[in-house]
């Protein structure tokens, strides 16, 4: 009786594990697989494996459409905004963690309470701000908005990171004659690299994948990021299925590859904030 | 805060801080500018102009509660509220329920649990726009997987999942329903923090497996579960790509949501109206958060 029950619960556990793996991976594998099939093959049997492996469609996409440009745009918008805002929020998080000064608690509360405001509800003012700055339909406008998106959680993660660095290290450096900048740059920043990686990867992933503001703030082909290009592409070429699946593959793969290399940080950071999902 | 090892008065903490005030505030400057530009000013603007009629070219004109009245008499808004309520309930019970179940499954640490945890994350690391597109293809009538499997049994089967009532609502729901990895990670984190003695004590007291879960483990992860509920409901309030790129709110208003209405209002230059929707998104979020906080007694500590 007991072994039967044990066996049943084991089956249940494995069933659910397999279910989760299937729903998480199968749709993506299907997309990648379909990119290697012809239109006819896709229509006649969506589940069949491709008969041959040819990268022509990817080459075609990169040569005939602006995919290198979109890729570069995504990399630029997500990369620049992540590096700059990581530096900004590290500076802010550092002094909030290690120094006492008038307004410290107020600023920390103000910065982190913004987590309660959904970014979407600020759409109109941000739209107008970017218009007034003359950055509408300009990748830099999108990049500027991305600077702000991870503020609350980055300050949170980075402040906690700097707090865990012992103050005695700072004091030792000060005794040795180090100035404020040296203490920050050479002592604290290198020791906070775990928190920096966590916040940075999370911001980069979010900005790399961002669709909402990029779709509102850009118009022309040359300013599109990958997710935007994808949505235009699918509406314009809705009958060339091979190309659609190939385009989708190009958009999806970089994020997955980044995740494979930084699994630990991604899991920690997503769980520590509970932002997405 | 002074450490013993350092001679008193040699470098007192406060002295060092006072000497460096200009550095401290300089370091806070960029974050403060971002906060003002992208948070404080926009939020104030949203609240104030939600009581005005404003087309973006002329100055806003105060019109009291007109925008809100218009909203609560507009059928697309009421339907999006109804959708939000239904989606929130589904998120709370089924989505978070499934995420929690998976956390308990992974907590058993049976073979493959780490792989499962890692793989479960993948849908969350790719763009929500791409994920919506994948599901648009998945549910496609001509070459989608679902219909071609069904047609193996019933060759005449034809349903445009995203474009016909009532299926569209459920097709949109399906794009996020089981992808509850955030909840799973949150709950799993709390489960792993339960002191081993507590589990052992329960076994010694004669608790059966499910009793340990029901009376010890489940109550101890209620903070994680509540956080998961809040996160998933917040995502329902701001759900955009999954709708915009699949059904665009249709058929009719079947899958209408607040962000879709908001974007439509912004592109129609009805800024006051758009901001009234923004205010309501924010207020609904706060109310939900308050209710869940209370319901799960989140602020009480356990150990």
How would you describe this structure to a colleague?
The complex is a heterodimer of chains A (277) and B (303). With 277 residues, chain A is mainly alpha-helical. Chain A has a single domain, classed as MetI-like fold. Helix content of chain A is 76%, strand content 0%. Chain A has helices at residues 2-34, 39-44, 56-64, 67-98, 104-113, 123-132, 139-149, 151-163, 167-175, 180-191, 193-209, 212-217, 226-236, 241-261, 263-273. The mean pLDDT of chain A is 89. In chain B, α2 (21-49) crosses α16 (271-295), α4 packs antiparallel against α13 and α10 (181-193) runs antiparallel to α13 (222-237). The two termini of chain B are 28 Å apart. Chain B has 16 helices and two strands. Chain B has 303 residues and is mainly alpha-helical. Mean pLDDT of chain B is 89; it is low at 1-10. Chain B is globular. At the A-B interface, α1, α4, α5, α6 and α7 of A face α1, α2, α4, α5 and α6 of B.
Short characterization:
The complex is a heterodimer of chains A (277) and B (303). With 277 residues, chain A is mostly helical.
End-to-end separation of chain B: 28 Å
Q: What is the CATH architecture assignment of chain A?
A: Orthogonal Bundle
Helix content of chain A: over 70%
Report the C-alpha radius of gyration of chain A, rounded. 24 Å
What's the number of structural domains of chain A?
1
The CATH topology of chain A is MetI-like fold
Secondary-structure-based class of chain A equals mainly alpha
The span between the termini of chain A is: 40 Å
């Amino acid at each position: 009786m007991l072994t039967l029950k044990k066996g049943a619960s084991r089956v249940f556990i494995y069933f659910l594990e397999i279910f989760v793996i299937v729903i998480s991976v199968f749709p993506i594998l299907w997309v990648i697989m379909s990119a290697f099939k012809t239109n006819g093959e896709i229509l006649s049997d969506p589940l069949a494996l491709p008969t041959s492996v040819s990268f022509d469609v990817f080459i075609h996409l990169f040569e005939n459409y602006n995919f290198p440009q979109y890729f570069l745009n995504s990399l630029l918008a997500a990369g620049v905004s992540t590096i700059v805002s990581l530096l900004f929020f590290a500076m802010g998080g550092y002094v909030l963690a290690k120094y006492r000064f008038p307004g410290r608690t107020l600023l920390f509360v103000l910065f982190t309470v913004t987590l309660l405001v959904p970014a979407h509800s600020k759409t109109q003012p941000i739209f107008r701000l970017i218009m007034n700055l003359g950055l509408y339909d300009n990748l830099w406008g999108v990049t500027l908005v991305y600077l702000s998106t991870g503020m609350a959680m980055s300050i949170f993660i980075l402040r906690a990171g700097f707090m865990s660095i012992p103050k005695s290290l700072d004091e030792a450096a000060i005794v040795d004659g180090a100035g404020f900048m040296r203490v920050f740059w050479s002592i604290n920043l290198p020791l906070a690299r775990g928190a920096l990686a966590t916040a940075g990867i999370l911001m980069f992933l979010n900005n790399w994948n961002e669709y909402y503001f990029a779709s509102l703030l850009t118009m022309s082909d040359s300013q599109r990021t990958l997710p935007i290009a994808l949505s235009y592409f699918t509406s314009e070429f809705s009958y060339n299925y091979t190309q659609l699946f190939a385009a989708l593959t190009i958009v999806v793969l970089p994020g997955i590859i980044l995740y494979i290399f930084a699994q630990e940080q991604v899991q920690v950071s997503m769980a520590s904030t509970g932002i997405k999902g | 805060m002074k450490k013993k090892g350092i001679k008193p008065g040699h470098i007192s903490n406060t002295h060092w801080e006072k000497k460096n005030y200009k550095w401290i505030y300089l370091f806070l400057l960029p974050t403060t500018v971002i906060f003002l530009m992208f948070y404080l000013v926009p939020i104030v603007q949203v609240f104030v102009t939600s009581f005005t009629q404003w087309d973006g070219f002329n100055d806003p004109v105060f019109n009291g509660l007109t925008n809100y009245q218009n909203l609560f008499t507009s059928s697309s808004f009421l339907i999006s509220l109804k959708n939000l309520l239904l989606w929130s309930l589904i998120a709370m019970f089924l989505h978070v329920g499934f995420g929690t179940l998976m956390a308990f499954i992974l907590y058993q640490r049976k073979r493959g649990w780490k792989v499962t945890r890692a793989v479960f994350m993948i849908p969350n690391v790719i763009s929500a726009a791409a994920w919506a597109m994948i599901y648009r293809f998945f549910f496609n009538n001509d070459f989608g997987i679902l219909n071609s499997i069904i047609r193996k049994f019933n060759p005449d089967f034809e349903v445009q999942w995203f474009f016909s009532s009532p299926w569209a609502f459920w097709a949109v729901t399906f794009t996020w329903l089981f992808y509850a990895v955030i909840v799973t990670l949150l709950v799993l984190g709390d489960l792993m923090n339960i002191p081993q003695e507590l589990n052992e004590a329960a076994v010694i007291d004669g608790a059966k497996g499910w009793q340990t879960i029901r009376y010890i483990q489940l109550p101890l992860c209620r903070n994680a579960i509540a956080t998961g509920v809040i996160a998933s409901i917040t995502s329902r309030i701001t759900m955009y790509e999954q709708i915009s790129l699949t059904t665009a709110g249709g058929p009719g208003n079947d899958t209408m949501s607040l962000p879709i209405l908001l974007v439509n209002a912004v592109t129609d230059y009805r800024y006051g109206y758009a901001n009234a929707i923004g205010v309501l998104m924010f207020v609904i979020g706060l109310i939900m958060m308050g209710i869940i906080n209370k319901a799960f007694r989140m602020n009480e500590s356990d150990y």
